[in-house]
Write a structure and sequence with these properties.
heterodimer; A: 2 strands; B: alpha/beta; Amidase signature (AS) enzymes; 11 strands; 39% helix; globular
Chain lengths: 98, 490
């Protein structure tokens, strides 16, 4: 594993919607490098043909009857919003960033 | 004198020697006295708890006791939702947030009449092993105020060890109940994955998280588990089984019980000799009571930490995407557009350890690295699970140390990797979904040492029965820290 450059760290930070100062990017890059160096040991484990485990205890996706039940009071949820517009959450404008 | 247990509080309530109002008052008084020096709690419910206690006393007077925990004061880790109360998770990003509903475990606890007196400090979003990484500041170990109570459920552990309450709820993703229990001389249990509903537990790593108790005895843990466990339609990963009936099984003893001793756990680099001595003493006690020990091997143990930190951070990076300043919690002010609001709310709201783990998790899930890291970790997880399946073919429970050392000093594990490595004995139970419990087995240099009992999936009652048998024969769980000097700050 090659050392993560500050640019690599900033790329991952953007994927994670985090904004890092250059000091943070450098320090976290060092930490990530050390951690990735450590987990590199997994490469030596023979996992040929071993199925991955996503959940330790196998379970089936449960189904339920499609019957209406009461939910949380929307007003109580909206009261927590940093900003609201009527029955909606208000956020700053969305610029075209495609 | 040993601190009171839930069982003792319950008996005193039944005999009319105390009231819930008295117990709650004593808890709040004790918190006011000692917590300025310890920092176990981030909030107390003084008025509301007193009202709940009066209601419990009124029920009792009418002969309508709701459960063995009716009227008993408890503390909740600050990542468990209680309707109308703050839910801070040790994070700036949840500043001021109040839960709009009860976690299923909390609803069941309250339906059983337990009185929530406060909320316990924790590492931010349960990411840590020391309870140092909280916006509220560190929690200190009642046994030595210069030391950590462990983490991430360190506030819950410290609240019980300091005698504020006899029972606290925590959550365990990689050892976050068991390691603090070990560091503070308590019993702490992580139930089988899926035993306790995760609805209303703020998610860290969904395939690993479980809610569980911290208390002085296995008996008290059994009372709690029987009350909060059992299927919940609100959690798709909750097991179909009903509540545990572990109290009924507690006195079964250990005659003929086959205890496996995993070789790799006793040969780990860096484990303290005194810790291994205390664990071997515990093994001898159980052997004398009729248990049989057998060596077993869990060959993939040395890869457990690497596997855990990949799986846990990957799941965390996804779970923590919901904290974006849009719908709840803290929003950065003055952002010109949505992207800037997301980024600044998250960057200002999360602490360094949380950022570190989100970045690691995002990286291992990102294009080009998924197979090498995340998929590989999931395959190693299968191998770890198979190790346990093979071991449990020849034994009923496993006995191991809980942590390689007694409580470390606050600030001692500044390097993140050294902190991660301290979870070496506990993460495997989460990866394999097993029930695990830590109980006190003596002191080393005046600090508590814990021994861990692991069982196969759904053998929660067997794990508790083994611990109860040990506690009937020993008094390590009755050891208490020296009186806490409420003015002391080290």
């Amino acid at each position: 594993m090659s050392k993560l450059s500050p640019e690599d760290v900033r790329h991952v930070a953007r994927l994670a919607a985090l904004r890092l100062s250059s000091d943070e990017a450098e320090a976290l890059g060092r930490d990530l490098h050390a951690i990735l160096d450590y987990v590199e040991q997994l490469a030596e484990v023979d996992t040929e043909g071993v199925p991955p485990t996503a959940h330790a205890i196998p379970f089936e996706t449960p189904l339920r009857q499609d019957t209406p039940v009461s939910s949380i009071d929307p007003e109580e949820v909206l009261a927590q919003a940093p900003a609201r517009a009527g029955t909606a959450f208000a956020v700053p404008k969305v610029l075209d960033e495609a | 004198m040993p601190l009171p247990t839930v069982a003792a509080q319950r008996a005193a309530l039944d005999r009319g020697e105390t009231s819930s109002a008295d117990l709650v008052d004593a808890a709040l008084t004790r918190a006011a006295e000692v917590d300025p020096a310890i920092g176990a709690l981030v909030a107390t419910r003084d008025e509301a708890a007193r009202a709940d206690a009066e209601a419990a006393d009124a029920r009792r007077a009418r002969g309508e006791v709701a459960s063995p925990l009716d009227g008993v004061p408890v503390v909740l880790k600050d990542n468990l939702a209680q309707h109308g109360e703050t839910l801070g998770c040790g994070s700036r990003i949840l500043e001021g947030y109040r839960s709009p509903f009860d976690a299923t475990a909390v609803a069941r606890l309250r339906a059983g009449g337990a009185v929530v007196v406060g909320r316990a400090n924790m590492d931010e979003f349960a990411m840590g092993s020391s309870t140092e990484h909280s916006v509220a500041g560190p929690t200190r170990n009642p046994w030595d105020l210069s030391r950590s109570p462990g983490g991430s459920s360190g506030g819950s552990a410290a609240a019980v060890a300091a005698g504020i309450v006899a029972l606290a709820l925590g959550s365990d993703t990689g050892g976050s109940i068991r390691q603090p229990a070990s560091f503070t001389g308590l019993v702490g249990m992580k139930p089988t994955y899926g035993r306790v509903s995760r609805l209303g537990l703020v998610a860290f790593a969904s395939s690993l998280d479980q809610i569980g108790p911290l208390a002085h005895t296995a008996e008290d843990c059994a009372l709690l588990l029987d009350l909060i466990s059992g299927h919940d339609p609100g959690d798709a990963t909750s097991l179909p089984e009903g509540p545990t009936a572990s109290q009924a099984d507690l006195d079964g003893g250990v005659e003929g019980l086959r205890i496996g001793l995993p070789r790799e756990y006793f040969e780990t680099e860096g484990v303290r000799a005194e810790v291994l001595d205390r664990v071997r003493d515990a093994v001898a006690v159980l052997e004398a009571a009729g248990a049989k020990t057998t060596p077993v091997s869990l060959p993939n143990t040395r890869h457990a930490i690497a596997c855990y930190y990949l799986v846990a951070t990957a799941e965390a990076s996804s779970n923590l995407a919901r904290f974006d300043g849009a719908r709840y919690g803290r929003r950065a002010e003055g952002a010109a557009d949505l992207r800037e609001m997301y980024e600044r709310s998250r960057s200002e709201g999360f602490g360094t350890e949380v950022k570190r783990r989100i970045l690691l998790g995002t990286f291992v899930l990102s294009a080009g690295y998924y197979d090498a890291y995340y998929k590989k970790a999931q395959q190693v997880r299968t191998l770890l699970r198979r190790d346990f399946e093979r071991a449990f073919e020849g034994c009923d429970v496993l006995l191991t140390p809980t942590a390689p050392e007694p409580a470390f000093r606050i600030g001692e594990k500044a390097d993140p990797l050294s902190m991660y490595l301290s979870d070496v004995y506990t993460v495997s139970a989460n990866l394999a979904g097993l029930p695990g419990l830590s109980m006190p087995c003596g002191l080393a240099d005046g600090l508590p040492v814990g021994v861990q009992i692991l069982g196969p999936p759904l053998a929660d009652a067997r794990v508790l029965r083994t611990a109860h048998a040990y506690q009937r024969l020993t008094d390590h769980h009755e050891a208490t820290p020296a009186p806490i000097d409420s003015g002391a700050r080290t």
